[in-house]
């Protein structure tokens, strides 16, 4: 299989598709990318508001791979921890790690996407076409049907392989599902909560209205508000709220007064920063929070799903983009194995990758519960404090679940999940049983946590819990 | 809401639909049932072979509820345990319970369904229509579109409520999914294995060719054969095998010789009882093993999914029909609460029931791994032996996971799963750590198992594992 002779069709030029196009372009493939939206470098398609994302170590592996680490870094705003706003307006910061050099970043989706498109198009073997919406994929013939947004014409493209990076609503995944040509396992799971994006605008002088270098959280048990900084001095704020349960919910917040009353009651300090709240609230859509898993991702050696098209997750671990970028890194590693044919490549990629994307999907849901509720509970706060101290005192010997997932980019999500959950369980139980104590000797505590974590993992292994 | 004035439309006259029709008929509703197949009492639709199912305590709650306990019992063949056939042709029996009065039954799907249809039709307020296939449901208008198999005419029926009991391929569930009128969580998960039904015919004198009162299993690690007795002296045999992995799989068993060679190698003692093997093998279809979960089951107070339409499971716990029958019992209990409107009834039913049907789906997959693999492992065999002894010695104080699921019909599947898994983990770990011993004092062992089980449940509770 000579790489240069292969025609690769990529559906979707979002973050994953444009990164993949760049990487495959660098490797010498003939790459054609079809994107349903207009070119975001020319048309403002985000309705005037920059939407930001969390960018961390796993995503950074990919930007390193394609040689864009420094350029991407210049788009990043470091967030060293969570700034928690309690119901009384008090704030306290909870760092993401006890190691100073570990933090996450806020980055603009649009800016990053534009950078990747620019870099991909520098390769003459990469061509990107906008306003071409994929309607369906014939995975047996390796062809895709598109509709041109402007001319309304439909046309078919074929290729040696098709990779769909067309996001959570993937047209190719729909073709897998509706085609019924093979057994396609599939799930879409919605939380009872939806989300809505709001904003905290900059001060008149362009400064940030609240502390810049943190991910702000207003946890309120069954609902939550968060805010991430943008380079222009604003924050993108996201409200997570039930559709139909509780005193205030998306279905019953129908008037200006009710929205203001709700924020006054739940988030008075945030409301003070958001004179534009009511406008934002009624102009911006309410969107669902869904998890998508499926299998197989590939059909023979013809077609492959990647990124959100294969595994969409809820945003609570800040890992959505990072997981999709890591997909490209893992796929690139499989290409390096020179397996000889696309079916072997796709199969190997899915076999090594799927367990990890399943894990981050589950972890993201765990974190939904942790962020809106647990961060307020004493035992979880004690655990967090202890873990910060352990990471600070023993930087090479301890990493919390959050650190394993976010900063230990050399282990997979599944390993991070299993070890991280066992550690959490060990610490919570030893705190509860008074076997360790927040003021105890740290070396002693580290030893006990490690012992207990291993015991928990071993007990689960004996009970056969990791066999599948 | 006067029960007698309510028109209930049921889609599907399988086991769940005909039981539900009977019960709602008994309660006085006007019930119309539409079934896509012909009347199985008049037309032989099972291609000449009776297919049997496992019937146990939870199913029996439903037959008691409708007053058919004795009639159903006359269709049952008790199976007191698993008869395990090892690779050398040795057999040993492993009872389902240490209590003699706890066993499961083999029952003919067709005979049971016919009985339920007969009983339902005795009520003049119940009408059953055959050869009417549901194409879709308009859940906003509470109408269903049908096609008559004979005349090919399409027609619309409306009702006060529609309950779909149309099985794993439910047309109404498809309407929920495709309608996109509300957030519909849905999953279909296939195992890598499929199944094929085969048979052991009676001896010429009508006797059974092997022991009648057991569920026969030939576990072979990654594949398995099972057999359940029929009243006519035959056994229905089911082969569970990977589609495409291992030396022998469904995709490569394409010739008479290969099938015979496979059985000669894997199941020589079964082969000796199956001179008709090759015929059966190539005449009968290979079918997938899927799990279906979804939510919500109901749309407002208009429509409701029940039975396999709401929660199809793999057959390895013998609970598919039992779970669907228990649905009817639970629904009946909610009707007794006189909640006043259908939306409240449907919501209450789903809230109380879904956690349990989710649990039996997961348990059934656990048992797939246990049946084909674990039953051959020493530590699992020791656990089983110990649990039999505990159940025998302390009949009121101990129940294995299997017994909790199968025979303790007064607790829900979820409680059975949580307690059963914790017990399994406790026993396996204590055996492994030599804290208990198969020859130890039973009273002592019971005490330790209970202590350890409680500790495991408590540790999980503290770690927040049961909150969601």
UniProtKB/TrEMBL annotation, chains A, B:
E.C. designation(s): 1.14.13.9
Alphabetical UniProt keywords: FAD, Flavoprotein, Monooxygenase, NADP, Oxidoreductase, Pyridine nucleotide biosynthesis
Pathway recorded for this protein: Cofactor biosynthesis; NAD(+) biosynthesis; quinolinate from L-kynurenine: step 1/3
Enzyme class, spelled out: oxidoreductase
Known cofactor(s): FAD
Reactions that this protein is recorded to catalyse: L-kynurenine + NADPH + O2 + H(+) = 3-hydroxy-L-kynurenine + NADP(+) + H2O
Keyword flag NADP: yes
Residue ranges annotated for the FAD-binding domain, each copy included: 7-361
Any Pfam family matching the protein: FAD_binding_3
Functional summary from the UniProt entry: Catalyzes the hydroxylation of L-kynurenine (L-Kyn) to form 3-hydroxy-L-kynurenine (L-3OHKyn). Required for synthesis of quinolinic acid.
Stated family: Belongs to the aromatic-ring hydroxylase family. KMO subfamily.
HAMAP family in UniProt: Kynurenine_monooxygenase
Entry protein name: Kynurenine 3-monooxygenase
Source taxonomy: Bacteria, Pseudomonadati, Bacteroidota, Flavobacteriia, Flavobacteriales
Gene (UniProt): kmo
